Amino acid sequence: MWNTGCLQRIAGALAAPRVVALAVVPVLLLLLSVSARAQQADGLRVDVALVLAVDVSRSMSPEELEIQRQGYAAAIASPQVVQAISYGAYGRIAITFFEWAGMAHVRELIGWTVIETEADAQAVAARLLENRGASASRTSISGAILHGTELLKSVPYASDRLVIDISGDGPNNDGMMVTLARDAAVENGIAINGLPLMTTGGFYSGFSIDDLDVYYRNCVVGGPASFVIPVNDWKQFPEAVRRKLVLEIGGLTPEKVPDVVPVHVPVLPGPLVAPMIKAQFSARANAYDCLIGEKIWEQRRQRFYLDP
């Protein structure tokens, strides 16, 4: 059984930026149940199967990409994350890590790997630091979600919870509509959490939006116990990632934080089984334009004659 009290203390001890927890979203597409596959997998059982999907689009500078890579490595190997893993029902998690940009750009840095000990976590962190990727054009959050969903279909471990963790600095502007990819994932019992990078700089910052956290809340995240942790300054990034991982490992949402919208997911004793949960958007969420990224891209393409 999860030691939720200890996990909450770990999460609360980390300095947290403004956090928004979300209600789950309506489902529009039906795919083969990922949760069923994960629960029927043979072999080792893990508390959570976690997909880390990291934006490397050209809107981010080389310096920002390096901060991001080092931040994830440091968070994975941090004492707080290792301790959170040890409090799980099985005391282990499975993770995979890939970089994404446009629909055609996905680069897997770490395949499915079990983290159970401090040595496991340090080994994963070292592998991340050894891999220096390159940026690519466009931003396909939908492509990242679809790829993450495919990875969760093939996870070789039985898992109680399925999570895709998306970090990015702009709205979707390539591939299918992001809400369709999100809804398909949620239909399959997957939770999608967001780390919107609301920092200044980068080469193509004109493609971003000021309310990226609101965009992520309304258009990207969803599923059981989903949440958003915005990053407004790169100095916040390492702590934001650590806090996010602790929450994801424990199946928790941020508590006692202003502007929180509760997630309508029952709190059950013991390990959670990722359920298929459906809920309705609020009127405010329905009013948000989830095609804003595509519209900005098209406007700038016509103005500057960019390649489609």
Automatic annotation (TrEMBL):
Organism superkingdom: Bacteria
Cited InterPro entries: DUF1194 (IPR010607), vWFA_dom_sf (IPR036465)
Pfam families reported for this sequence: DUF1194
Protein name: DUF1194 domain-containing protein
